[in-house]
Amino acid sequence: MKAxxxxxxxxxxxxxxxxxxxxxxxxxxxxxxxxxxxxSLPSRVDTVVLAVSYMKEAxxxxxxxxxxxxxxxxxxxxxxxxxxxxxxxVEEHLDETFLAFNGDVICSLDLNAMLHRHRQMxxxxxVALWEVEDPSPFGVVALDPTGxxxxxxxxxxxxxxxxxxxxxxTYIFEPEILDHIGPGVVSLEREVFPQVxxxxxxxxxxxxxxxxxxxxxxxLKAQETIMRFQGDRVFDLxxxxxxxxxxxxxxxxxxxxxxxxxxxxxxxxxxxxxSGAIVSNSAIMAGAxxxxxxxxxxxxxxxxxxxxxxxxxxxxxxxxx
Length: 321
Ligand code: GTP
What we know:
This protein is of the alpha/beta class and 321 residues long. The protein has helices at residues 17-20, 33-39, 56-65, 82-89, 111-121, 188-196, 216-230, and strands at 2-6, 27-28, 31-32, 47-52, 71-76, 98-102, 105-107, 125-131, 139-143, 149-154, 165-173, 201-205, 210-212, 233-235, 238-239, 243-245, 249-252, 255-256, 259-261, 265-267, 272-273, 278-280, 282-284, 289-290, 295-297, 300-301, 306-307, 312-314, 317-318. The radius of gyration is 21 Å and the shape is elongated.
């Protein structure tokens, strides 16, 4: 079975981090975002087709040297074709039921259960659905009592939203869906889904967790969710002095002086947190340094970046442009 991962977006909301790193390779809890998806695939998936565009060379380099235990095929778009156009562009690889993923969603969905439901309902596609309090920033669906999707709304106002169920960005499709995608730039959510409702598009609700990691806030929420699930971890740490720790945290190959770390802090290899520094709800990426007396809160400090002595970085993404 094949899985297509849409991994060609610009990742504008994570800039400046995504100027140098395509979003699928941005590290989350120690491994690239896209690896979280690949590692969660059922064993029956033997091939991953990555629909790439923006910074495709970086993705090619990553997959050349990292074995994912599955065949990985990268298919490039000369210009970003949108979520539907990207699927159409990989059509030659798809001849049977396939899985498709937005490349930046982390969730606890049981893909085998979703496949079972897809086969049971027998439609052209099944869309994973997640319940939220405020659906207005998302794609919203209405269901009939059998679970068939009757309507799609993209980012409706809160008052207009037909339900609290949102498109969770994971799909199972029959290859016939590709016949409904025209050439060029096409949006799956806005153009294709409304067209194929008559062919049977079903919803699959699940529980547990779901986070779209496309923004600083949601990235940090995903980090916290995964670290709470995994528990606090410390590897190869060098400490000089007394460190006040509050979980969840993950410290890997870092150097720490007298400082306060946590809650929700991931410190990557080679990073340094110096005397008097306070770090909370943040990721300190490889080789970054939080200098003496600095404060970092609600922030992503990109690889090799230096937070100057005594400064405060709050709610920011710091990275090379
Ligand atoms: P923002 O610019 O911050 O909105 O991020 P994004 O460009 O990743 O867009 P968005 O989060 O809406 O995309 C959802 C998923 O679809 C991500 O995994 C993107 O990589 C992917 N995606 C979006 N547009 C394209 C495209 O034109 N081609 C391909 N191959 N993937 C896309």
